[in-house]
Every structure is written in structure tokens, then in C-alpha cells.
Amino acid sequence: MKKLFLIGGTMGVGKTAVCTRLKREVEGCVFLDGDWCWDAHPFQVTEETKSMVMDNICYLLNQFLHCSAYQTIFFCWVMHEQQIIDEILSRLDIGDCEVRAVSLLCDEASLRERLSGDIDRGLRSPDVIERSLKRIPLYEKLDTIKIETSEKSIPAIAREILDL
Known about the structure:
The protein is an alpha/beta fold. It has a single domain (2-162), classed as Rossmann fold (3-Layer(aba) Sandwich). Helices cover 43% and strands 19% of the residues. α1 (15-25) packs across α6 (154-162) and α4 (108-120) packs antiparallel against α5 (128-135). The two termini are 15 Å apart.
């Protein structure tokens, strides 16, 4: 049986870093970051681009689910609303698949520190901090497994996910 991990969390919580680690630890897996499905300049959030990114994500995830080379799929994206998770799952062929929906959480101080480092390295714009902080409380409301990441290393978080 295939395994699909949907790993959500606010910007800067460590989704991509954790999934990159998971990809190295699990044989026969594939990793998709939802941000890759609409990495554009300028970045635009419109009804058209939101529809397009959802189509892209679901298409790619279904391709991975149908491919015999992959037994485990790691997908990460912000996924701050239950409707986003539900829509993705409703569009996937998961009849013969074990699904784990996970939300990575961290405290405000840790998030500020992580995002500030990204800003200093030129990876993010300064406005990301306030946007990301506003989303923290949204993850408590989701029907997901919650994993606190504030004082944990990337390998420890990856191990916790694999142990689910």
C-alpha cells in the first residue's frame, strides 16, 4: 500500500527542509512542494492562479500515485484551511493509499528567527514574517496530526513523521 504524507504549516516552519530530509531517508519515494507548482515572477494570487496551482498539484500527485516506482509521496504546502486539504484529497486516487495529514507548528519566536535568517540570505521578503505569524492559529483548527517543531532538529521532526 502506498503512503501519502500531506505536510502543511505556515511559511518558515520547516516544511521543505523536513521533506527534503524525508526524501533522503526513504527509498522509493518522491517529494513535491506545492510552491513549485506556481513559482512565478511576479507571484500573483488570483482566482485563476489558485485554480491552476490546485490543478497542477493534483495532476502531479496522481501521477506519483499511479507510478509503480514510488511507494511513498511527500507533499508539502502551506495548507492553512481544511478546504484546501479536502479539495486535494477529493481529487486524488487514494483508494489503495494510506494518507497522513500533518501540520508542523512552532512558536512565534522560533518562526521569527527562521524567517529572519531566510530574509538575511535573500530568500524571502521582510513582509513574510507578519503574514506567516497571522497563520499560526489556523493550523490548530485543522483535522491533521500536529507536530511541534520549535525546539527540534530537522532529523528529529522527520523521524517523528516517519513514526506516524
